[in-house]
Each structure stands twice: as C-alpha cells, then as structure tokens.
Amino acid sequence: MNKISRATLLITIILSSYAVMQTNYESMAADTHNKGHLIESISKDEPAQARTDILNGEKIYHTGISMLSGKIAHRGGPEWIEPDDIVSCAACHGDTGKGEEDAPTGDVKPADIRYKNLMYKEHHHGGVADSHKRYTDELIKRAITGGLNPAGKPLDHNMPRFLMNDKDLEDLIKYLKTLK
To answer: What DSSP state is assigned to residue 165?
Structure first.
C-alpha cells in the first residue's frame, strides 16, 4: 500500500470514528430526552465534548452504566443488592438528587447530593446533622468510591462503593453540578 492510500485510509477511519461518536452522542441525547432527563442547562453553545461529558455523567447517575466503560461495578450497599446488579445513584438519591423518602435503604433517607448542597459545611444524613467540612470534587470522588465523608468517617453502609475510573467520576460530578 502506498503512502497516499494509507493516508486516505487513515483519514477515512478518523472521519468514520468521529461520525460514530457524533451519532452516539445524538442517540444518547435523544434517548435521555425521551426519558425526560435531558439536561436543560446544557447550552447548544457548549463544546460537543462538554455536552458528551455531562450526558455520560447523567447516564451513569440514572442507569449505573457509562457510555465509555459500560456497567459501573460496586461493592457493598443495601442487603438487597447482589454483586452483579446494576446500581444507579437515582435508585436511592432520586432523579433530582434530593434523596428519596421511599428509597430501598430501610429507615435511612439517602443524602441530598445536589452539588450546591454538598458545598455546605453541615449536612443531614438520615435526618441527623453531620457537621464536617464541605465537599470538594476530590472528596466527592472519595465518597463515591471509598464511602467516606469529608471528615474521613464512613458513610452509611447502604451507600455502595463504586469502582469507577477517573473520567467517569469527573463526568458524574459534572452532571451533579447541573442538578437544581
């Protein structure tokens, strides 16, 4: 194969990959919109990558599945969760992140995990004031993966510890920032 043919082939592969990514993004956006979760705050002026990051975070939050890496593995959590189950944040924290009253976590109401709420110093977990320093993005990642609050104390045992890569964690936090 000569150099021109290889270059043409490479350009074709790159353009095809971009077309597939764009189609996947548009399909994800349509699918999310049809479920009533499309993020209204994503501006059409945002770069495509920023929209894709937030949509990936939204998919993780609502389904427990990443557009990039598939099913999000976990350990621990409520007794009813099996190790191979797909677990989403929304199952307990609700579509809005405020924490569902009827969450399947027994008598413990899941925390309000809207980003603006995590920035306050005092939090209420299960109706109990739990005063500690505010969360940062790194401390949110630690809470999601290690089950620790900002003071280093364990979160309730009902909170699964998710096995997530950095990119998926960052996308999930970008989505949490959109919850009002």
So the answer is: -
Nearest alpha-carbon partner for 81 in 105, 99, 102: 105
Question: Which parts of the chain have pLDDT scores under 70?
Answer: 1-46, 104-106, 121-132
CB 173 within 8 A of CB 89: no
**Cα radius of gyration rounded to whole Å, the chain:** 19
Q: Judge residue 25's burial from the number of C-beta atoms within 10 Å of its C-beta, 0-12 exposed, 13-18 middle, 19 or more buried.
A: middle
151 neighbors 125 (Cβ within 8 angstroms): no
76 and 160 Cβ atoms separated by less than 8 Å: yes
The residues near 101 (Cβ < 8 Å, ≥ 6 apart) are 109
